[in-house]
Design goal:
Two copies of one chain form a homodimer. By secondary structure, chain A is of the alpha/beta class. Chain A has two domains: 151 residues, Alpha-Beta Complex (Aspartate Aminotransferase, domain 1); 224 residues, Type I PLP-dependent aspartate aminotransferase-like (Major domain) (Aspartate Aminotransferase, domain 2). Chain A is built from 13 helices and 13 strands. Chain A has a seven-stranded mixed sheet, sandwiched between helices. Chain A has a four-stranded antiparallel sheet with strand order 9-10-13-12, with helices on one face. In chain A, a hairpin with a 7-residue loop joins strand 9 and strand 10. In chain A, helix 3 crosses helix 10. The radius of gyration of chain A is 21 Å and the shape is globular. The interface between A and B is large, with 81 and 81 residues. Chains A, B: Belongs to the class-I pyridoxal-phosphate-dependent aminotransferase family.
């Protein structure tokens, strides 16, 4: 028998996308579905992105250099300087979205069977990339009731074994919206240094912070050797379809390893590297604008949830997600109900069951993730429908 | 000590790119370098590619669906129909270039420590992708003296162990330019079926064949379950910077595995998927034109090499590469000489030492790969310079 690899079999289908058939069926019945399930921004990117791409005038469309088109890499360096992070071009490699940066980071630090610590709940694609690279993710559970605070160092230390190679920190966090500050990062770095671990810090949502200033772990001097930053242009410029991110580190050995992977896959897309140059060089106006917008939405979602009986959540400080604990036994069943049985005036809401953002079995079963990627008006309506849907679901049970 | 992973350390830097500093130094001395080292086509892509991308008028640049934009996938299906291959959309996943298709194929069939058979010389990036996926490549040596003919089944069978999961066939071949016909593919498929192996068939250069008609392994009924095709828009449309390829198979389990990897990385670039739709739907005019051009170049390179004393090569039948055995002990030293010491009327030639296209130590040491990515006039001049350089190098030794 021809069989696929074990690692392929261990990956579960994306939690975000597996309800698509139910959603399509609802739409075919004429039900409008408010989509709060995917982190695909509804906001348009700066027009300059398209304008720059359209100005591309070379007759050929050759490979970009594997370490990136030099003006594009310089633009990332200029971008980081705004956050008081000094990087040379050799410290940055543009990647095919943040996704490739995650995969490359795991491959650079860990061999098959090695362990990497993650704080759950976490962005579910890490599980697939860990499976692809045969790396074992070791979860440390954070809890909504505790505002997703990091555990004490002693608690974290219990998870470190001889096989541990790195700690992953997604900050600002997808899916919880938590933002850890310099002090918390300092304590993770101290632990990493004590145990010779890398810190893979996913800063995809860097600027989307509502009460703090944007920060990068690369600003912390002690992180110089251990930190690897996963970055992306997708969210801060509302351009996930451009498939441009980067991986950055001040550790020369890590950069040498990453460059080998980058050379194997030849290059990140040429047109989008050009298109993003002016955006990276002059990012703050746009990111401030969208952050103000997401903050308004955060307030809408958070206050609506506060009014729903039995719902527990904490006010997210960044990104555009929120984890809410519902008074249900199985949020997957609730999501199915919302798409298949419920509608209010021919409208319903799609959210993501949170279980797949956890590694530990049973956790997140009564939680959902809400991505606030609709404008305030629609979001208010969607939250009202969610409230009605939840009430009807609880009545039925 | 913080150290990078073993798998990163096993990858050697790309053979194609490691002479770049020497090349730049030559150019800084005012020496014109004819570049026959990288498979980056000098020919422009169809204008329709840029025109279509420029017509993109949506305000947003969202993720494409992980299994591809449906019109783009349909365009691949229409493209394959021209070669009498019937595929449903579910049999095709667009990838970020052929590179991602290679990585996904290895991950879908093999776990760490599993073995995959390759015919050497072969496209060197496979080594890096094998290292990244912790898969062991097992080489079967083909020889220029034997016109890179495949070995008898019994010979090949000696390499098959309990850990063997697949056979890789790059057809038309990079770097040798060999094209294996239906009969040869049939015998590989028979062997694969006998031993429960997959056949990963890299058909990046499908149409660039000079004496045969373009063919795909997917046309062979016996390949239905075992074949996985790695494909790319990069060479046939002279658009490697678009980073679009695909992976195709009639095996539903393989497609399910590949889709999981595709979902983890979210999507291939949106704009380029749109841009390639009209090219895929109507490909043959352009590919016939460039193939005629490459054929002329093949003739120029091949006949020039025939006139160089001590050089052995066979007439390539496809792609735009050729492996030539030189009367030198170390082709790497020769390439360095051409870039650092030699010039003829302030011009020189850059080719790729072939050793890195082999796994077996010592093989290819006296061979080079020539990529004929210059027009006929320049190519004639470059071959003349190569001849003079080789003569001077041999004299010096």
């Amino acid at each position: 028998m021809l069989t696929t690899s074990k690692r392929a079999n261990t990956i579960i289908a994306s939690p975000i996308r597996k309800f698509l058939p139910l959603m399509r069926a609802a739409e075919q019945r004429g039900v409008k579905v408010f989509k709060l399930n995917v982190g695909d921004p509804d906001i348009a990117p700066p027009r300059l992105l398209f304008a720059t791409i359209k100005k591309y005038h070379q007759p050929n469309l050759g490979y970009a250099p594997s370490p990136g088109i030099s003006e594009h890499v310089e633009a990332w360096a200029a971008y980081y300087r705004k956050f008081k992070v000094e990087l040379q071009p050799a410290n940055i490699i543009p990647t095919v979205g943040g996704a490739e940066a995650i995969l490359f980071s795991l491959l650079a630090v860990a061999d098959p069977g090695d362990e990497v610590i993650v704080f759950e709940p976490f962005y579910a694609s890490y599980k697939a990339f860990a499976a692809m690279s045969s790396v074992k993710l070791v979860p440390v559970t954070l809890r909504v009731e505790n505002n997703f605070a990091l555990p004490a160092a002693a608690e974290l230390e219990k998870k470190i074994t001889k096989k541990t190679r790195a700690i992953v920190v997604i900050n600002p966090n997808n899916p919880s919206g938590t933002v850890w500050g310099e002090k918390e990062l300092q304590s993770i770095i101290a632990l990493a240094r004590k145990h010779n671990l890398f810190v893979i810090c996913d800063e995809t949502y860097r600027e989307i912070v509502f009460e703090q200033k944007p920060f990068s772990i690369l600003r912390i001097p002690a992180a110089k050797q251990c930190a690897i930053v996963v970055d992306s242009a997708s969210k801060r410029f509302s351009a996930p379809g451009a498939r441009i991110g980067c991986v950055a580190s001040l550790n020369a050995d890590i950069m040498a390893a990453l460059l080998k992977f980058a050379m194997a896959r030849l290059s990140a897309p040429t047109l989008e590297q050009y298109g993003l140059i002016p955006l990276l060089k002059n990012s703050t106006g746009y990111t401030a604008k969208i952050t103000a917008e997401y903050k308004k939405r955060r307030d809408v979602v958070f206050s609506a949830l506060q009014e729903m009986p039995g719902v527990t959540c904490r006010r997210p400080q960044g990104a555009f997600y929120l984890i809410a604990k519902l008074p249900v036994a199985d949020s997957e069943d609730f999501v199915k109900f919302m798409l298949s049985e419920f509608n209010y005036k021919n409208k319903t809401v799609m959210v993501t069951p949170a279980a797949d953002f956890y590694m530990t079995k049973g956790l997140g079963r009564n939680e959902i993730r809400i991505a606030y990627v609709l404008n305030v008006k629609e979001l208010k309506e969607a939250m009202d429908i969610l409230k009605r849907g939840l009430a009807q679901y609880l009545e039925k049970k």
